[in-house]
Design a protein that fits this description.
With 449 residues, the protein is α/β, with parallel strands linked by helices. Helices cover 30% and strands 22% of the residues. It is built from 16 helices and 20 strands. The strands form 5 sheets. Strands 3, 5, 6, 9, 10, 19 and 20 form a 7-stranded mixed β-sheet that branches. A 6-stranded parallel β-sheet has the order 13-12-11-16-17-18.
């Protein structure tokens, strides 16, 4: 891989390398990647979720370079990031991802490559195109790119109005193989988007999944369709997902009501421009009396706290992603005719709520999952224009990916956790220093906290 890294470094230094220079680089037969193993899928059997340790299941090893197919690209990955789907993959919850790979492998001779006894994980990347397959005309070797994680086949009519509705919709690096936590990644060429010139490799890699997810969930007409003046309750408002939701609410003329767990995270929200903060550690809400019974008095106490901040108004939108722990309270807290838009369910998938508060008050629950092609491009465009900023807080070396995933599993992090892949150090990859200087405080907002 050194010849590839040398070419990228030369290009970054201002040497005029052509697409042919990159296309003619010798590709390795194998590359370094973060994997889980199929024969270890039962390794945490009987262990509580909170006690499962990604450091035991995530391996950093050499794997064979996959064959390049039509409409695909091989990308030299300079940096990647940890998403909660990598945590789920590493602890084999809610199911082993090898079931996804087996089903995908049956779809076509090309998809059969993905059904392997190991799974290369990761759903974010920034890097450089190395080689493109037949039928790829919009991207060339040497292009600096990021990738969104939507993988679709688009052979059914169902996906052509909204690519997320394609029957063969998958999340790359989670439901497919050859993901971004590696030195090389295999992607469909329509996953590629331009890298923001003012960001480093690790900064550019970090928004992909969560930024697009927040955009669809909150801004898009496929999600909550947020408008100016809306009050938006955002759980985990300084986190990897919530940090983008807070930015979108502020950019779109809405008022975020930011729920955080400590004063440090509250200060991050204030630095973004949010003024209405609820510190759940201070509030001490206990929405569940026991594992089977919710406490509606606590829902009402949440509602009162919101109205104290808003001058008596309830929230138009609840940005939901914790799931089981908060969902009943979220349904209660939304105003009459309001919207609860939900994804992820990091605290549990089995949601319970009192349907009287939904049906009698004409509220809506909207399910939202990642983003379609257009939404991903729109979200990435806002990053490139400096209107939305990365939420990167810390970056690990590839060899330390297990600890990075454990941090996310234990919620011992702020914003997004990055991972250096081929990039030898942090701070590389910037093309537009003038724009970077203009936004440096926002870019560094989540660092050092």
């Amino acid at each position: 891989m050194q010849n590839i890294l040398d070419a990228i470094s030369a290009s970054q230094a201002g040497n005029a390398l052509t697409p042919d220079d990159f296309a003619n680089l010798d590709l390795p037969e194998s590359y370094r990647a973060v994997t889980i193993h199929k024969d270890e899928a039962d390794m945490f059997e009987g262990v509580a979720s909170k006690d499962k340790d990604p450091r035991k299941s995530l391996h950093v090893e050499d794997v064979a370079l996959p064959e390049l197919g039509p409409g695909e690209a091989l990308v030299a990955v300079m940096a990647s990031a940890i998403n909660y789907n990598t945590v789920w993959t590493s602890i084999f919850e809610p199911v082993s991802t090898f079931g996804f790979l087996e089903r995908y492998g049956k779809l076509s001779p090309l998809s059969k490559r993905h059904d392997l006894p190991y799974h290369v994980v990761g759903s974010d990347l920034s890097g450089v195109v190395l080689k493109t397959g037949v039928g790829v005309h919009s991207w060339n070797p040497g292009d600096e790119v990021v990738a969104h994680c939507l993988s679709v086949e688009l052979e059914s009519s169902d996906g052509h109005n909204d690519t997320m509705l394609d029957p063969e919709q998958r999340i790359w690096g989670f439901e497919t193989n050859f993901g971004g936590l590696a030195h090389v990644a295999l992607v469909k060429s329509n996953q590629l988007m331009p890298k923001a010139a003012h960001l480093t490799w690790e900064e550019a890699a970090s928004p992909g999944l969560v930024n697009s997810t927040a955009y669809r969930q909150l801004v898009s007409r496929n999600g909550a369709g947020m408008k100016q003046g809306d009050n938006v309750l955002i759980w985990g408002a300084s986190g990897g997902l919530g940090g983008f939701a807070t930015q979108y609410a502020l950019n779109g003329g809405a008022t975020p009501i930011c729920v955080v767990s400590n004063e440090e995270k509250a200060e991050i929200c204030r630095s973004m421009g949010a003024e209405l903060i609820l510190n759940r550690s201070e509030e001490g809400w206990k929405f569940w009396k026991d594992e089977n019974t919710q406490d509606q008095k606590e829902w009402r106490r949440l509602g009162m706290s919101i109205r104290e901040l808003t001058g008596g108004e309830d929230v138009d939108i609840v940005f939901e992603h914790p799931g089981k722990e908060t969902f009943g309270a979220s349904v209660y807290a939304a105003r009459k005719g309001g919207t609860i838009v939900t994804c992820a369910s990091t605290s549990g998938y089995m949601h319970q709520y009192d349907n009287r508060y939904l049906w009698m008050n004409l509220k809506k629950i909207v399910g939202s999952h990642f983003a379609n092609y257009r939404e991903s491009w729109e979200a990435n465009r806002l990053i490139s224009k400096g209107m939305i900023h990365p939420t990167l807080s810390r970056t690990y070396a590839l060899e330390d990916v297990g600890q990075a995933a454990l941090d996310v599993h234990k919620n011992a992090h702020q914003g997004k956790v990055g991972v250096l892949c081929l990039a030898p150090e942090e701070g590389l990859g910037v093309r537009d220093t003038e724009m970077r200087d203009k936004h440096l405080d926002q870019i560094n907002r989540f660092r050092g906290v």
